[in-house]
Amino acid sequence: MQIDLYDRHFYKTMLGIALPITLQNLISSALNMVDTVMIGKLGETQIAAVGLANQVFFLFILLMFGVNSGCAIFTAQFWGKQDIRNVRRVMGIALVSGISISFLFGIGAYFIPEKLLRIFTTDAVVVDMGSQYLRIVSFSYLITAITFVYAFASRSIGQAKLPMMVSAVSLLANTGLNYLLIFGNFYFPKMGIQGAALATLIARSIELILLVGIIYGNKDVLAGTLKEMLAFDNKFFKKVYNTTIPVILNEGLWSLGMIMYTAAYARISTEAIASIQIANTIQSMFMVISMGLGNSCAVMLGNVIGAERQEKAVIYGNTFCLLGIITGVVLGLKLVLLSPVILSFFNVSPVVYNNAAKILLIMGIFMCFRFFNTVLIIGILRSGGDTKFSLFLEMGSVWILGVPLAFLGALVLKLPVYLVYALISLEELVKACIGVPRVISKKWVRNVVRNM
Which pLDDT band holds residue 1 (cuts at 50, 70, 90)? Predict the structure, then answer.
């Protein structure tokens, strides 16, 4: 495998894309943890209610991620050949797709939240609280769909700083509004988890207004008119969606797999859900770097493939693989060492605390595999349009291995939540072992915008 660890241009470009994305995700994860701590002050039932309600949003977000990741393959490669007209046409496809999906999820979350939440738990109190949260948050889905299109397109053309700064403002607003609306500080009404939902809705509105306002105010490359963005024909649409559909299916089925994991945890106990919610919140602060690496890998490889520099793409891909493994090992160790300090901020029972501590230990052990797989799936395979292999790889590991093990551990073997999590984590190891030969084969390198 060709690897170049001394290419200064590689590191300069990578850091220019990865750092803003990492910082954005770090701010998001840190403030999400603060939000979880705030909601935790209300009680463990409230943590579980918001955690389960957010599973609906989690599925929606991952579908948005699928649509925009698939379209970003084309955006990055079109930008590599400086084809602005087609960059805007791809944005139009992403907008139409995202808005359509947001309506479906918004209607479901507003009108039948109880039915959605009963998929995960039979606890009537948790269902009632989660429904109150979902009805308010449902209005943010359309706003989020539009924001995603412009944020992903910005990253795909190498402008990752703008969505980072806008997201930071939005997230800070969300945390501030949570403080005011959850607890009723400074003469604001004390709304509990409904206040957390309203804060989310307002913050996402701020994010959309700032992002779109700045892009069109500066007459940016992405500031296309509706006519320009909707100027795609059926042939163009089919070409984009032939590559994008496996990504959407990947994200959708993967997120359903994650939801099935949550359903398995919920069958253990409400304390188990709270433990997983806390551990995932903490882990996400460490995983932000993997998202930065994966997204910078996707943009850089997509740009060079679009510019017909396939050999450079192979070298970049191999280098990203090695960096992903090294970074995962280092951060996994840090997660294990720092977890007692971070857990001390949560006001939870000893059972929840001990379960969360053991889950974090397992997360630390498997982190190097998670980092590699993030770079592999999001960065390498998708950048080259190798989305069908990516779909089969991820779905096979989740649905053939992970989901059966989750329910075997929770319902048949009656294992504690941390051992169920350990069983599920084996799918990351299997995924990595199958993915390595694909990278070595170079079959993933494809120019999907040639002759478009």
Answer: low
